[in-house]
Design a protein that fits this description.
This protein is mainly beta. The protein is 13% helix and 35% strand. The strands form five sheets. The chain has a five-stranded mixed β-sheet with strand order 11-14-15-1-16. The protein has a five-stranded mixed β-sheet with strand order 2-7-8-10-9. The chain starts with a strand and ends with a strand.
């Protein structure tokens, strides 16, 4: 059974230079991002989210993922010794079942500026293919990092059961898990 990987905010707010929506300012064009991070994250966590929607990992976490055979992720080294973890596949949530609070639709970038979610299991859409036991995916929908609105939104990470087992055994600081339905 897949699980959500619950992260803490690492304190590195803007990691990449990306295009921004002209109307709401949200980061768009993540696939064309130019990464620049000279300073280290304020909180030294193995895996953390940035406010511009990316995931930063330590060298130890990077090496652990490669050694453990996790699939669905690629890494780009940053000048500060950390890595950006890029997730290859995004999965849709069943938004009717999940029923989040979504407000302030942006017609330009076709997304909500405010996405607030309940603390409930994530229902993955039945149209999605199953998540592999060693696979890491992200949600197509983005959610608030700390504040929950505006441009500070990031996808949620979901992983297969073997990923959870490996991460729990390694006991990285700042990583928790929540069931996915």
């Amino acid at each position: 059974m897949p699980v959500e990987i619950c992260l803490e905010f690492g304190g590195l707010c803007v990691l990449a230079k990306t295009e921004r929506c002209d109307v709401c300012g949200r980061h768009i064009g993540r696939d064309r991002a130019v990464f620049s991070a000279h300073q280290k994250p304020v909180r030294r966590l193995a895996l953390s989210a940035t406010s511009d929607g990316f995931f930063v990992v330590s060298k130890a976490f990077h090496n652990f993922c490669r050694y453990s055979g996790f699939t669905g992720v690629d890494f780009s080294r940053l000048e500060n010794g950390y890595f950006v973890m890029k997730v290859r596949r995004c999965v849709e949530l069943d938004m009717a079942q999940f029923a989040p609070t979504q407000e302030d639709w942006c017609d330009q970038c076709k997304t909500f500026r405010r996405n607030l979610r309940a603390d409930a299991p994530l229902p993955i859409s039945t149209r999605e293919k199953p998540i592999g036991s060693l696979e890491v995916v992200e949600t197509c929908q983005r959610w608030g990092v700390e504040v929950g609105e505006g441009t500070a939104q990031t996808p949620m990470l979901i992983a297969g059961d073997k990923v959870r087992e490996a991460l729990e055994a390694e006991a990285f600081k700042g990583i928790n898990f929540r069931d996915v339905s």
